[in-house]
TrEMBL record:
It comes from the Eukaryota. PANTHER family: TUBULIN-SPECIFIC CHAPERONE A. It holds the Pfam family TBCA. Keywords: Chaperone, Cytoplasm, Cytoskeleton, Microtubule. Signal peptide: none annotated. GO terms for biological process: post-chaperonin tubulin folding pathway; tubulin complex assembly. Belongs to the TBCA family. It is found in: Cytoplasm, Cytoskeleton. GO terms for molecular function: beta-tubulin binding. This is Tubulin-specific chaperone A. The keyword Chaperone applies.
Length: 102
């Protein structure tokens, strides 16, 4: 059976929230790596490149947050007019998780 619009919107939001948390972990690891390189007098070129990677990760997080907001708004709008009988607990939980990011 094909997934319903509710399932698609709910899973998309959940995936984006999870993706954002993984990028936050990557950001912390990258920052720790840069600090390690600096404290051990690492190669300036490598430090510079790692800082660029850190900046790229920050840009990706900003874009993912934008997509989360759009997905959350879409799901909330969908739920306002939803008349089906599917369980809405996961949808509401994903919206709550998304709201914690803003």
């Amino acid at each position: 059976m094909a997934p319903t619009q509710l399932e698609i919107k709910t899973k998309a939001l959940g995936r984006l929230v999870k993706e954002e948390s993984l990028y936050q972990e990557e950001l912390k690891q990258q920052d720790d790596h840069i600090n390690f390189l600096k404290s051990n007098n690492g190669d300036e070129y490598e430090i510079k490149k790692q800082i660029q990677v850190l900046d790229d990760t920050k840009k990706v997080i900003k874009e993912v947050l934008k997509k989360i907001k759009e997905s959350k708004d879409s799901l909330e709008s969908f739920l306002e007019t939803y008349t089906g009988d599917e369980d809405l607990n996961l949808s509401k939980q994903n919206i709550a998780n998304a709201n914690k990011l803003f």
